[in-house]
Amino acid sequence: MGQSKAKAPKMMYADSSRTGKPFSKNPFVIQFKGRYLMYSSVLPVKGSQSREIEITESNDLIHWKNVGFLTIQEPYEKNGISAPCALVIKGKVHVFYQTYGNGKNDAICHAISEDGINNFVRNATNPIFRPDGDWNCGRAIDAEVFLFKGKYYMYYATRDPNFKIQMLGVATAPANTNFNRAEWTHQSKLAPLLKPEEKWEGECIEAASIIKRNGILYMFYAGAYDNWPQQIGVATSKDGTNWQRLFKKPFLENGKPGEWNYSESGHPDIFDLGNKSYLFYQGNKDQGKTWWISNVEVGWNKKGPYLK
């Protein structure tokens, strides 16, 4: 478990068309209309630290090409949009994304597209979610929306009131929801779902990605802030709200010196094809001067997931 390979992985993708340097983060992959679509965060223009969302397509989960961008449009998006989550619901693609660059005021937004690439119609109630409760600062980023037992669970990352420690929370909406702001019930008003406790998690747990296997939810999450190094852990739940770590150590570690992911292996997206699962993640070896997205196949046994 967690051992890095010396050779570069088969998949290595980064957009360089907009800034001249490789930069792609926060992957999320879906299967839609006979192909795979990946949504990820990119820089909008050279010299900017803002974010927009790139859309790429693939037929093999290895080779990806650009098919479009979800760009900044609304006033609440003016500083950037980032960290997409995508769901296919009744033949349409729903994208949940965060506003970017607003500190404690960043929040979760929602948009719908007929083809998953063009004409994203924003939810009129955007931003659709920010948390309440004394333990957090009111910020919500890194949405992961998952249908489980008749409800949509929206997992999010936030920080403590001092804006230092990053933690996870959850809100729910009914299965027939239109995802409007008023339909979300915050389930984490009193305490976070997960907060950093293991040494390798540093001061941050973020970027939850959920999969269900044999009735159990598995959460792949990022531990530690970017380049600390950030690495990937796994937790489990039977009810969606109570989570326990499956491993004390990282499931996917950062690479060794000189390897492409030496600075981190982070921000997971677990993508399931039934007979196969792939863990998409971001990495770099230069402390974030560049960012790449890759994947690794994940196998399953009675103990849970393992790296193939």
Describe this protein with a few key phrases.
mainly beta, Tachylectin-2, Chain A, disordered N terminus, single chain, 308 residues, 4-stranded antiparallel beta sheet, 45% strand, 20 strands, 0% helix
Gross CATH architecture: 5 Propeller
Major sheet details: 4 strands, antiparallel
Radius of gyration: 18 Å
What is the number of strand segments? 20
Count of individual domains? 1
The class by helix and strand makeup works out as mainly beta
Report strand order across the widest sheet: 1-2-3-4
Give the name of the CATH superfamily: Glycosyl hydrolase domain, family 43
User: Unreliable stretches, pLDDT < 50, 5 or more residues?
Assistant: 1-6
Task: Outline the structure in words.
The chain is mostly beta strands and 308 residues long. The chain has one domain (25-302): Tachylectin-2, Chain A (5 Propeller). Helix content is 0%, strand content 45%. It is built from no helices and 20 strands. The chain has strands at residues 25-32, 35-42, 52-58, 65-70, 81-89, 92-99, 108-113, 121-122, 141-148, 151-159, 166-174, 185-186, 205-213, 216-223, 231-237, 244-245, 264-272, 277-284, 292-301, 304-307. The strands form 5 sheets. The protein has a 4-stranded antiparallel sheet with strand order 1-2-3-4, with no helix packed on it. The chain has a 4-stranded antiparallel sheet with strand order 5-6-7-8, with no helix packed on it. Strand 10 (151-159) and strand 11 form a beta hairpin.
